[in-house]
Amino acid sequence: MSVTSIRLIVQHIAFVIFTYGGLFRVSIGAFIPCLSCPFVYSCSGYCYLFMFQRSIGIILLPFSGLYISENPVSDVLRNLSIFLVGLLIFSILVVILGKTWCGWLCPFGLFQDWITKLRNLFRIRESEIILRHKHRLSAIKYILLIYMIVFPLLVSVGLLPIDFILAFCNICPAKSIMPLFVGDVQYMALDFSSVISLVFSALLLAITAGMLIGMFFKDRFFCLFCPMLAFVNLYKLLYVLRLAKDPTSCHGCGNCRRTCSMDNETIYRERVKTNVYDADCMGCFKCAEGCAADRTLSVKLGPLKIFNSSRQYAAKR
Amino acid sequence: MAEITREDRQKKITFQRFSSEITQEYERLRELPDYFPELDYFLDLLKEGQDPSVVEKRVQKPVVALMCLQAPLELFHACGLHPFKIFGGSQVTTRLSSPVLPPVMCPMLRSALGTLMLGKGFSSGNGSDNSAELKDTKNTSFSFWGNRKDKGNGTYRPVGDFKAWVTPTTCDWVVKLDELLYLCGVENKTPAHRLELPHTKDRPESQERWLEEIYLLKKFLLVQAGMKKLQAKVLNRSMDLYQQSWKLFSSLIDLKRQGLVSLSWFLVIANSFFYDDIEIWMEELKKVLVCFRKRNVQKIGPRVFVAGSPIFFPNLKMARIIEEAGLVVVMDDLCSSERLFPGAVFFDDYSEHGLLKALTQRYHQGCLCPTFADNDRRVNNILAPAHKELYDGVIFHVLKGCHPFDLESLSLEAKIKGEGLKYLKLETDYTAEDSQTLLTRLEAFRSALVG
């Protein structure tokens, strides 16, 4: 069985568990390093971005004057410890599996892969306009990461209303799309409960529409902007499961670049370093699988090589 | 009766010698100790298949001549055409073209041009073919494209059995093909297309230009095939078919790595690829693979990597001498051998553009031909850690006049020796005179490897 087949199976199992696990009382926690959307009522684990924003948003809340705290310092320390414990659990999960969270487990990632399949079914070409501006677009995810730290922080000090606490979730297309898989369409409508909610829901619908179009014409389009990918990328030097290249064996055939859904060039271009994790890499390892040069790309679990590229493997696919 | 000129007689003699050269090599191969009857299919293809009209009948498709493997073969197949790589492996035909060609020139192209010249003379005059002297050439053991009668006007056609020509501008000799054809007096009236190859691989602009060139090639092939549009699913099917054949070929490579298939037989199989329908060729290859595995006769001797200029049938001199010296070729990077297919082609865009892009990139970026300016990764195929453990030394084969390989051999030698590997450069041509010298050098090299 090829790595791609195994990945597809894992992706679908993960999708079912993350999306419907809650119906069977499966609970994986609130620190999941992928877009397992908490707005899906039956989800079994929460995307960490949700908890991250919430825990930042409450850190300084005792000082904001929004509620009366008997011991604000102690409350802040408790809030900070909640944030740090969450971050620690998230960090452990990221360090163990690295970017495979994005390529193998993310339910929203699988949704994007389905759209790509649909495009390929109609044999419609992938957009090259997005590709040309990729380096500029992919910087947006870091801006979003800063946005989702700054806005909840401003909420916590009372400078912004509480509606801004989930600054990113309010505009995340996973919030509108993923609940559809459990028949929930409430996030696909305008929310007239307040002006801020109306603005956010309108923005969300516009972003969702734009993302759906983008996803149709470009593989994993949303991942270019996903702050989770940016967040996970911060740990890239610590991953236990990682991708390595032996530049002295590479023929430069370009299979790695062509098979990459994120159109990463780093692996193809690298001629010296062995660490070829690109900032946009989603850890699917399709590059290693498509590489027909013996032992050029390998997947390592710590010091152990668990997969080596080879002509024989490429010929068996 | 038309007057027979000296030139015509010379061609007739060349043709007979050419025929006998092929027959001799055919018989020699059949007498090898590791010959088995299943290999006859490939040998017969090489013996009979050199005539494009024979190939045309066999594949039931128009045949398009191809001067170099740089053009994506899948595209020809998808357009309903059969690519026919013009090999120039005959020593005899080089003699015919030598007087009119530059003295230091690639013997492969010299041979190919000589072969084309065989047809030239027969097309001259009033088109009569009543000459008794010429008639007997038809009774030779195989036919040839120069020795054919045009159905239309009763004249022999020089290169008319091809539906079209495609010339990728790879090395200087192929770039100047038209000039060389003119020097040889060969008239080529078939539609021709020059496929301009950017000689840098890593620049995105080069990739864009190359893709544009492939689009032009597609347009040209569609016109030749009388088609209006190329459907993506048809191209995808052709690509799948070629991938299947590469996978089988890869199994043959595996057997070669184990020393179960000699370079001679590997070359016979690879060289015959263009002479039959790909699916039939694949079926026969499957049979041969089973036989090689069943026989399981491992060649004994120091293992070598052969790099450099290509080796074509019927001139398998280098392969023969290397094997006579007791060396076992387990790897090579010859475009007439292991590099016949560009290798695995993976992609994730299934549109027509995506497929063409994947093909063009694979044929361009992945190519190890020394014709490219930025070819620093070429040596990786030889010096990759996974490869180095398979062989004991490197033989670099240069055909005199094959400038890209000759130039490259200097830097490669430094890199290979720098890795502490044994290296031997052999410069030769198609003549048999240097066989003994080569054998002596190879035997000395063998001693060094064993030593």
Task: Give an account of the 3D structure.
- The complex is a heterodimer of chains A (317) and B (451).
- By secondary structure, chain A is mainly α.
- Chain A has two domains: 230 residues, no CATH class; 77 residues, Alpha-Beta Plaits, CATH 3.30.70.
- In chain A, a hairpin with a 2-residue loop joins strand 4 and strand 5.
- In chain A, helix 2 packs antiparallel against helix 4 and helix 2 packs parallel to helix 9.
- The model of chain A has no long low-confidence stretch (mean pLDDT 92).
- Chain B is an alpha/beta fold.
- Chain B folds into two domains: 225 residues, Rossmann fold; 212 residues, 3-Layer(aba) Sandwich (Rossmann fold), CATH 3.40.50.
- Chain B contains 19 helices and eight strands.
- In chain B, strands 2-1-3-4 form a four-stranded parallel β-sheet.
- In chain B, helix 1 runs antiparallel to helix 5.
- The radius of gyration of chain B is 22 Å and the shape is globular.
- The interface between A and B is large, with 36 and 40 residues.
Q: Any chance you could write out the topology, listing elements then pairs?
A:
The complex is a heterodimer of chains A (317) and B (451).
Chain A: H1 3-20, E1 29-32, E2 45-47, H2 48-59, H3 61-64, H4 72-97, H5 100-105, H6 107-121, H7 129-132, H8 134-137, H9 140-156, H10 173-177, H11 195-217, H12 227-233, E3 241-245, H13 255-259, H14 266-269, H15 286-290, E4 297-301, E5 304-308, H16 311-316
Parallel strand pairs in A: 1-2
Antiparallel strand pairs in A: 3-4, 4-5
Chain B: H1 6-30, H2 40-48, H3 52-59, E1 63-66, H4 73-78, E2 82-85, H5 91-97, H6 107-120, H7 132-135, E3 164-168, H8 172-175, H9 177-183, E4 192-195, H10 204-225, H11 232-257, H12 263-271, H13 278-295, E5 303-308, H14 317-324, E6 328-332, H15 352-364, H16 380-383, H17 385-388, E7 393-399, H18 403-418, E8 422-428, H19 435-450
Parallel strand pairs in B: 1-2, 1-3, 3-4, 5-6, 5-7, 7-8
